[in-house]
Amino acid sequence: MAKGKNTSVFFCQECGYESSKWMGQCPGCRQWNTFVEESVVTRTQGKSAVTSGGTKNKPASLMEISLEEEDRLKTHMQELDRVLGGGLVKGSLTLVGGDPGIGKSTLLLQVCRNLAADDRKVLYVSGEESLKQIKIRANRIGDFSEHLKLLCETSLEAIEETIRRTSPDVVVIDSIQTMYRESISSAPGSVSQVREATSVLLQLAKGLNISIFIVGHVTKEGTVAGPRVLEHMVDTVLYFEGDRHASYRILRGVKNRFGSTNEIGVFEMETSGLKEVLNPSEFMLSGKPEDASGSIVVCSMEGTRPMLIEIQALVCHSSFGIPRRQTIGTDFNRVNLLIAVLEKRLGLSLGNCDAYVNIAGGIKIQEPAVDLGIAMAVVSSFKNRMIDNKMIAVGEVGLSGEVRGVSMIQARIQEARKLGFTTCVIPSVCMESVKEIEGIKVIGVKSVKEAINLL
Fold it and tell me: What is the Cα–Cα distance from 65 to 91, expressed in whole angstroms?
């Protein structure tokens, strides 16, 4: 056992910066009043985070390292495998964050069920629920294999001993904020406890070559509770998004050392658990109104996946001196910028009108390629002119009113044609890279004015 002594240090709650005295501003992240005092144990001996037992790592040539198919575990959930970059990497540490009740535990329990069905040894450690509570949730999902073992424990020492003794292929820790080490006097969920727990799990994942999922609670700002060093230590960070009162859920990769961080997975919450949505475009467009002004469909790229989304705008005369602007699902400042462009370049009198912009379905879109769609929806509602139900618009709008090019235009057009759209409005600079697609008409525009004339 490593010997140590109790000391009192100050931690930054934002970035995990450590100091021997309190400071008003953190030198690491430049945030004010983020330091908290905690008691920690200073160890004189310790193990490397990537060694197992008492063995030492030796340098290896890059040419000697081989990659095989079985280095990734398939979870049999296509949406999750897509976000992970093709499957679960052995020896990886993955953090899953999300709002309470969003379905994090349900998702991971379904993953454990699929992996156990492949004769993989899976250990599910819960610090929040009893065995009977997990059993009630499991009965909703389906039948489970005997290869899945459950453990209700919050002591880090007991969890580490169980993992080393049973040697599972996959471990789920639910949640990291409930784990604690007895030698650290601070409460579970504190900066020092979270750092210590993550460090131990990282050592186990790398040393024993097992894949570990850890569940993290989020703050009201939407970030994982605890120090930001937690996100730096893990290999992959996944956020489970969506309204808990709606049926859909979106799994978004924020950090991934083994794949793209732009991919998303779409799920639908049902009574039997989470169901994958393999065609999210059709799912997002369900219920789209017919012959209504202020509604248009745009195509956004989420990683390598094109997704058709409906944009709704409502413009009406304001009864107050200052018009109201409100957005749901897109950047508020970006919409204000587009309204200013419409006023300046098209001469529209929007200064005395309230404007509301909504991304139907509740999904959040930040891609500039939806600018043209937002502008056309606002003008459509302002002039009460209906947009063709079979038309989509793609393009970035500049301050001069020009329509700039976007990436992967061919994939966007093909997705629109697959769902029955007949007209696609795109930037004229992208026309050269577009191959002719039967069944859809492609129109190139140089400015917002040209696009508005198509209404």
Answer: 15
How far apart are the C-alpha atoms of 125 and 136, rounded to whole Å?
Answer: 16
Spatial CA neighbour of 121 closest among 110, 112, 131, 129 = 112
How far apart, in whole angstroms, are the C-alpha atoms of residue 259 and residue 238? 12
**Residue 64 confidence class, pLDDT cut points 50, 70, 90:** confident
Of 327, 331, 441, which Cα lies nearest the Cα of 397? 331
- The two structure tokens encoding residue 11: 């931690």
At a CB cut-off of 8 Å and minimum separation 6, what does 54 contact?
Answer: none
Q: Which helix (H) or strand (E) holds 58?
A: none
pLDDT band at 175 (very low <50, low <70, confident <90, very high): confident
Q: Is 228 exposed, middle or buried (0-12, 13-18, 19+ CB in 10 A)?
A: middle
- DSSP for 277-293, please give it: -S-HHHHHTTTPPSS-B
Cβ-based neighbours of 72, under 8 Å, separated by 6 or more: 86, 87, 88, 89, 90
DSSP state of 30: -
Instruction: Read off the pLDDT of residues 23-38 as tens digits, 9 standing for 90 and up.
Output: 889 888 888 888 888 7
What DSSP letter does each residue of 117-149 carry, written as one string?
Answer: HTT--EEEEESSS-HHHHHHHHHHH----TTEE
CB 335 within 8 A of CB 365: no
% helix, strand, coil for the chain, step of 5: 30, 30, 40
Q: What is the pLDDT of residues 105-145, one digit of tens each?
A: 999 999 999 999 999 999 999 998 899 999 998 988 888 98
Query: How many residues are given for the chain?
Result: 455
Calpha distance 372→439 (Å, rounded):
23
